UniProtKB/TrEMBL annotation:
Pfam families: Polysacc_deac_1. It comes from the Bacteria. Residues 1-29 form the signal peptide. Residues 68-253 form the NodB homology domain. SUPFAM superfamilies: Glycoside hydrolase/deacetylase. Is involved in generating a small heat-stable compound (Nod), an acylated oligomer of N-acetylglucosamine, that stimulates mitosis in various plant protoplasts. Gene3D superfamilies: Glycoside hydrolase/deacetylase. This is Chitooligosaccharide deacetylase. PANTHER family: CHITIN DEACETYLASE 1-RELATED, GLYCOSYL TRANSFERASE-RELATED.
C-alpha cells in the first residue's frame, strides 16, 4: 500500500508542477476557492513560556499536534525563483507555512519577504549569515542572530529592530549552544528544531525527496516538517507532496505567535 501511494504521488510531480508554471494564479491563502484544496486546518498560537524549545531532532518536547497534523516549515530563503514556486504551490492548496529567513537574503529581497507575509505565512528567523554557532564565539553568534532578526524586520516592516515581531528562531544546522539557547529564552524567543525532514540540503530528485518524506510520515504520522524553499527539487516536489497530504488525511497546522493571536482577537472585539 505504501508503495502504491508513493507511485501515485510521484506520478503527479510532472503534471502538478507543469500546471503551476503555466499560469495558475497565486491565490491568497486566506481566500480558498478550491473545494478540494488541502487547506489549513487550524491555527496554533505558541509562545516561548509554554514551548521554549520544540522539535524532537534537538529537544525532548515538540508541539502538541494530533495524529495526522503537520506543520510545514521552510529554511534558508528567500531565494528566487524557487521560493516563488513554493509559494505558488502553497497558494494552490490554500496552505500556510512558516518561513525561517536568512537575514542577508531578506536584506537583498525585501519585496519577497513582504510577499511571504502578505500571502498569510509566518515570517521567522534563521540568523544573518547561516553560521555554525558552535564554531564561533558567543559574541559573534549573538551579533549574527541579532543582525538577522533586524534585517528580517526591516524587510518586513521597514524598522530595524532586534525585537522580532514573530519570536520564532531556528538555528542553522540545528547547531545551538547552551549560551545561545539561554540568550533566546531570556528574550522570549521560541527555538525550533524539527520532527522530520527529507535532508533536502543534499542533491536529490523531487521523486527521491517525496519518497523520503512519505516514508517518514508512515512512521511518525505527524510533526514539524523541515524543508528548504531555495532548493529546486523541493519546489518541484511541493505540489505532489501537498496532494499526498490531502489524499492521506493529513491536516495543516499554521503557527503564529501567541501575542499576535491575542492582538487579533482584541482587534476583532472592537
Amino acid at each position: 500500500m505504501a508503495k502504491l501511494r508513493l507511485h501515485k504521488a510521484a506520478s503527479r510531480l510532472v503534471g502538478a508542477t507543469t500546471a503551476l508554471l503555466t499560469g495558475i494564479a497565486v491565490a491568497n491563502a486566506a481566500d480558498c476557492s478550491r473545494k478540494d484544496a488541502l487547506g489549513t486546518s487550524r491555527v496554533l498560537a505558541v509562545d516561548a513560556k509554554t514551548y521554549p524549545r520544540v522539535g524532537l531532532k534537538s529537544f525532548p518536547q515538540t508541539l502538541p499536534l494530533a495524529d495526522h497534523e503537520v506543520v510545514l516549515t521552510f529554511d534558508d530563503g528567500p531565494r528566487p525563483p524557487n521560493t516563488q514556486k513554493v509559494l505558488a504551490a502553497l497558494a494552490q492548496e490554500c496552505v500556510r507555512a512558516t518561513f525561517f529567513l536568512v537575514g542577508k537574503s531578506s536584506a537583498e529581497l525585501p519585496e519577497l519577504v513582504r510577499r511571504i507575509a502578505a500571502e498569510g505565512h509566518t515570517v521567522a528567523h534563521h540568523s544573518w549569515s547561516h553560521p555554525m554557532m558552535s564554531q564561533i564565539s558567543f559574541e559573534q553568534a549573538k551579533e549574527d542572530i541579532e543582525r538577522g532578526i533586524a534585517a528580517d524586520e526591516m524587510a518586513l516592516n521597514g524598522v530595524s529592530t532586534q525585537v522580532p515581531s514573530t519570536p520564532f528562531f531556528r538555528f542553522p544546522y540545528f547547531d545551538s549552544t547552551p549560551a545561545t539557547l539561554d540568550l533566546l529564552q531570556s528574550r522570549g524567543i521560541l527555538v525550533f528544531s524539527a520532527d522530520l525532514w527529507a535532508a533536502d540540503w543534499e542533491n536529490m530528485t523531487p521523486e527521491q525527496e517525496l519518497k523520503k518524506l512519505i516514508e517518514q510520515l508512515e512512521i511518525t504520522k505527524k510533526g514539524i516538517i523541515l524543508l528548504h524553499d531555495p532548493q529546486a527539487w523541493t519546489a518541484a516536489m511541493m505540489p505532489a507532496f501537498l496532494r499526498y497530504l490531502h489524499d492521506n488525511g493529513y491536516r495543516i497546522v499554521h503557527l503564529v505567535p501567541a501575542a499576535a493571536s491575542a492582538q487579533t482577537r482584541a482587534d476583532g472585539a472592537h
